[in-house]
Design a protein that fits this description.
Layout (H helix, E strand, L loop, with lengths): L4 E6 H11 L14 H17 L3 E5 L7 H5 L12 H16 L4 E2 L6 H14 L3 E5 L13 E5 L8 E3 L1 H8 L6 H9 L14 H11 L2 H6 L6 H9 L1 H11 L11 H4 L6 H11 L2 H8 L10 E2 L5 E2 L45 E4 L3 H13 L2 E8 L9 E9 L2 E6 L4 H15 L5 E4 L2 H10 L7 E4 H8 L7 H9 L6 H5 L14 H28 L3 H21 L2 E2 L1 H26 L8 H11 L18 H7 L4 H20 L16 E3 L9 E3 L11 H5 L4 E2 L5 E8 L2 H10 L2 H8 L4 H10 L8 H13 L6 H8 L3 H14 L1 H17 L1 E3 L5 E3 L8 H37 L5 E6 L2 E7 L3 H14 L11 E6 L2 H4 L1
Parallel strand pairs: 1-2, 1-4, 2-3, 4-5, 9-12, 10-13, 13-14
Antiparallel strand pairs: 5-6, 7-8, 10-11, 11-12, 15-18, 16-17, 19-23, 19-24, 20-21, 22-23
Helix pairs in contact: 1-2, 2-4, 4-13, 7-8, 7-11, 13-14, 17-22, 18-21, 19-21, 22-35, 23-26, 25-26, 28-34, 28-35, 30-31, 30-33, 32-33, 33-34, 34-35, 35-36
Length: about 950
């Protein structure tokens, strides 16, 4: 007989959880719709169906109608934050998804989801079902039995928890699950605003129940309960009785469990395709339904972030003629219809095009003549891999007009590759051309390794989209589907699916490669026609043309150059770290009296909190484990020396595996150096990102971490490393854009800003500022514009919240210009929907008007700090462009090789040292002049390794 398993889902609890899990990196569709809740809920649903194999299922919702609890107690749930608008708008979609899976949606006015689940679970259990109530809500503990359990889904990759009577009793420290409502009656529930007995918490309630057995008995014997507890109970009798009633989940709701209504059925594929299309769940559609997603064509967001309605393209092979233009993207006042059936995207089979392979000498020469006449050329490289430093060139594609492109395959033999490439060299070196591409840096690097430099202006469609809209996906395929309503050929169609059996462009069918490569150039050319006018209209032309575009060849040169690694040093350091790691591990074992897997958070938590009992108040997290993250351990460091040894073990292990042993593996076989990749279009603030390896993450706060910088060395004995970085650049920018008189004056007069701040905050002379005062002022300086309040400052400095508040209040008084900047910037964001840097880089803030304080607060903090971080990012990019230009103009042999936050690193020829140092400092300090006379200061150092230079 098949297993009878019923899963009942507490919809809103799961929806809230899903929404907030992605709050820092929201999923936004092309129409500007936030799909955090829909995506997270769908994944939870699929995890249950696939992994838990229920036979029956239902999803229970609350309704807007008041319940008996609201009538009984008007303040019931009154303290809850208003749900974010995005979350409320997700509910119809989520119900559509549930119905698409043919799962019943249960809701009934006058009753909460808890009551529906309570009633259905009892009925199903009586019919022999094992029932799982899917919810993170602890109140459901009152319903569990041998047949009814709570199923708490894992949070952000954690394992789920299944809680029966024994687990519930252990969590609440009670003897019987019927005592759950007695506990809630006494201690209340802050989430639902159930008052409980004032002054009685969880421990006191559990102690009273252990002695008297029930709330009624506690009330009955309250006269004999001594001290303050007895007085609290006697004074809180009415509230306790009310609270227990409010907390009791009903099991007599007029709903019925009919087996067939709840049985899992075959999915309604058409309904799911419809809603997944609206939500743009492309990967989910393919994974669950085995089909490619067709996104609704008439729902779109323009490049300014406005919702627009775009006319549906006719379903024919008609394409734009040479005289026609791609439809303009313009703002519209009204939003598009919320639910429209998906329409088909165009593709290579439904669109007319002219894609030609140029293989013979005559064909190639004819192509070159066409390209000579063009002012703008879109090009793309096809290679054997994604590492521009290692891959081989397979072909080049070109396009100079829409729907027309050419593909030139290249031979395998290196000499023949150079021979064919030499035919195109005069074109690439023609400075009068404008070169268009998607992620052009990769193509420039591939050609640079083959000895070809691309001159002329650049237009990178990936960067164009980035300056217009810093958030979101921007692969060529995504941009094509979104702005051209065209679905490009998938790479897997050409070289096979990912995995060991995947081939390369060299192995693929030449006809497929021709279509794929030519289409890439054609699509990218079309995207340029869409983005170029929008950049001009959106006032970001200067940012694009003076910062992002000219930075591409700079980063290309830096990545090509790479940096030398001292492998013998790393090998020696690895052995040292291995010894120190074992020593730290043995200290932990000796102190705890146990040998266990120190790298296991679960085992470590049990040792710290159950065996050593370092924190009697410690509770397990939602994953069923104790928190053992660094912040938790740092707080315990003063309790026991064993914690310091654990932190040491962790630091040493990470340094060795992530950096010391990994760096030698990344050395390029051709150059003998490490070549990091700098990404321009990742961080919304404009900062560069570094990967393979991520040099921006090399630890600098500890002596052991800083030691790794010793491994980065000059190319030979004739060179030395020069490091130059900005001095307190973000604070200087804060002073400049806030126009705060006191802070501007401190920088103009060349004072130590933290000492000057401390003098103001503590009302003492600067010479009377103590080391401790300066330290506290420094913490406020760096924290205040990033939303740090009294609680955060108190945590950082280890002081009381009262003292922290007093420091912040005094700071705001003395530096009132900064407080005014913060307030005015938030108001600007609310009025305009974005904030911007001094160079006009915009950060869009979709949640700035959210009625939910948490969501709105996050947007407000971003509004305040984005102009600061973004201006710093723009400044160093502009400095890099000027330095690169001067290196070429002055024909210096020294090279710029690294950028890490506010620091630049150079591999310098000894005889050019002083000339380069002066050049670098001048370029950095004059790259972007700050308002209100605030000076920009850069400092430099020299050394035979990166640590010594810094």
């Amino acid at each position: 007989m098949p297993e009878k398993k019923l899963f009942l889902l507490d919809a809103m609890a799961l929806v809230f959880r899903a929404y907030y899990a992605l709050i820092r990196n929201p999923r936004i569709t092309s129409s500007g719709k936030n799909t955090n809740a829909q995506f997270g809920f769908t994944n939870t649903l699929m995890e249950l169906i696939n992994n838990r194999k229920p036979s029956h299922m239902a999803v229970c919702f609350d309704t807007q109608a008041p319940t008996e609890r609201h009538i009984e107690f008007s303040d019931y749930k009154a303290n809850r934050q208003e749900a974010p608008e995005d979350l409320l708008e997700a509910i119809p979609d989520i119900k559509a998804i549930i119905r698409g899976f043919q799962i019943p949606v249960i809701e009934l006015d006058g009753y909460e989801a808890d009551d529906l689940i309570g009633t259905l679970s009892q009925q199903a259990a009586a019919q022999g079902y094992d029932v799982f109530m899917v919810t993170p809500d602890k109140d459901y503990g009152q319903l569990v039995s041998d047949r009814i359990k709570i199923y708490k889904p894992g949070y952000q990759g954690g394992d789920p928890e299944i809680l029966g009577p024994s687990e519930i009793c252990a969590k609440w420290n009670i003897q019987d699950i019927r005592q759950v409502v007695d506990m809630l009656g006494m201690m209340g529930d802050a989430v639902d605003n159930i008052p409980g007995i004032p002054g009685v918490g969880e421990k006191t309630a559990a102690k009273l129940l252990a002695e008297y057995g029930s709330l009624e008995k506690v009330i009955e014997q309250s006269g004999s309960i001594k001290g303050a507890v007895g007085e609290k109970v006697r004074n809180g009798v009415d509230l306790a009785i009310l609270s227990k009633k409010l907390a009791t989940i009903r099991t007599d709701v007029p709903v019925a469990f009919h087996e067939e209504d709840f049985r899992l059925k075959e999915w309604d594929k058409e309904a799911l395709l419809r809603v997944f299309g609206l939500l743009e769940f492309r990967a989910l559609t393919k994974r669950l339904l085995g089909e490619e997603l067709q996104v609704p064509e008439n729902v779109q967001k323009d490049l300014f972030g406005n919702i627009v309605e775009v006319k549906t393209a006719p379903k024919s092979n008609r394409t734009f003629s040479e005289q026609e233009q791609i439809p303009a993207i313009s703002p519209a006042e009204e939003k598009s219809p919320e639910h429209e059936l998906p329409t088909e995207l165009k593709n290579i089979h439904t669109s007319s095009h002219q894609y030609q392979a140029c293989e013979t000498e005559d064909q190639i020469h004819s192509l070159i003549e066409i390209l000579k006449e063009a002012k703008e050329i879109c090009f793309d490289t096809e290679t054997t891999g994604l590492d521009a430093h290692e891959c081989e060139l397979v072909g080049l594609s070109f396009s100079t007009e829409m729907h027309k492109a050419y593909y030139v395959p290249f031979p395998v033999v290196p000499e023949q590759v150079q021979q064919r490439l030499s035919l195109f060299r005069p074109l690439f070196e023609d400075a009068s051309k404008k070169w268009i591409g998607q992620n052009l840096k990769f193509d420039l690097l591939v050609l640079k390794w083959l000895g070809v430099e691309v001159r002329g202006a650049l237009f990178d469609t990936m960067l164009a989209h980035y300056v217009i809209e810093a958030e979101g996906k921007r692969s060529m395929d995504e941009l094509s589907r979104r702005y051209l309503k065209y679905d490009p050929i998938s790479i897997e169609t050409v070289i096979g699916k990912k995995g060991k059996m995947q081939g390369t462009m060299r192995d693929a069918d030449p006809e497929l490669v021709k279509d794929y490569a030519a289409e890439d150039a054609d699509i990218t050319f079309q995207l340029k026609q869409v983005f170029a006018p929008v950049i001009i209209q959106s006032t970001m032309q200067r940012l694009f043309e003076e910062v992002e575009s000219p930075l591409v060849p700079v980063l290309t040169a830096m990545e090509y150059e790479g940096i030398r690694i001292d492998v013998p040093f790393l090998q020696t350091y690895s052995r040292q770290l291995e010894t120190e790691t074992k020593e730290a591990e043995e200290k932990v074992f000796a102190a705890s009296g146990l040998r266990f897997n120190l790298a296991s958070p679960k085992q470590l938590g049990e040792v710290l909190f159950e065996h050593l009992k370092l924190d009697p108040k410690a509770k397990k997290t939602k994953t069923g484990q104790y928190a053992t993250d660094e912040a938790t351990l740092q707080k315990l460091a003063s309790v026991s020396p064993v914690v310091e040894d654990i932190l040491t073990f962790r630091e040493l292990s990470k340094l060795r595996s992530t950096y010391v042993d990994a760096l030698p593996q990344l050395i390029n076989r051709k150059s003998g150096r490490v070549h990091t990749t700098f990404s321009q279009a990742v961080a919304v603030t404009g900062r560069l990102a570094s990967s393979n390896p991520n040099l921006q993450n090399i630890p600098v706060r500890t002596a052991r971490g800083r030691e790794i910088r010793k491994a980065f060395i000059p190319r030979d004995s004739n060179h030395i490393l020069l490091s130059a970085d900005y001095s307190q650049i973000e604070l200087r920018i804060v002073a400049a854009i806030s126009a705060d008189p006191a802070m501007c004056a401190a920088f103009i007069e060349g004072k130590d800003i933290h000492t000057a701040t401390a003098a103001k905050v503590y009302n003492v002379k600067e010479e009377e500022v103590t080391k401790e005062m300066r330290y506290k002022a420094k913490s406020v300086n760096f924290g205040i514009v990033y939303g740090q309040g009294a609680f955060g400052l108190a945590e950082n400095l280890g002081i009381s919240r009262t003292e922290a508040k007093a420091i912040i209040d005094q700071y705001k008084k003395e530096f009132s210009g900064i407080q005014r900047y913060m307030e005015e910037t938030v108001e600007f964001a609310k009025a305009n929907g974005y904030v911007q840097t001094l160079m006009g880089r915009r950060r869009w803030l979709r949640d700035i008007h959210s009625s939910n304080p948490t969501v709105r607060g996050f947007a407000e903090r971003n509004a305040i700090n984005s102009p600061i971080q973004g201006t710093a990012a723009d400044m160093i990019k502009m400095a890099m462009i000027r330095i690169h230009h001067e290196l070429q103009q002055q024909k210096l042999k020294s090279k710029m090789i690294l950028q890490v936050h506010d620091e630049l690193v150079f591999d310098v020829l000894h005889e050019e040292t002083e000339q380069l140092r002066a050049l670098v400092i001048e370029c950095m300090q004059s790259a972007l002049v700050l308002p209100n006379g605030v000076p920009v200061v850069a400092e430099s150092g020299l050394g035979n390794n990166w640590l010594d230079a810094h």
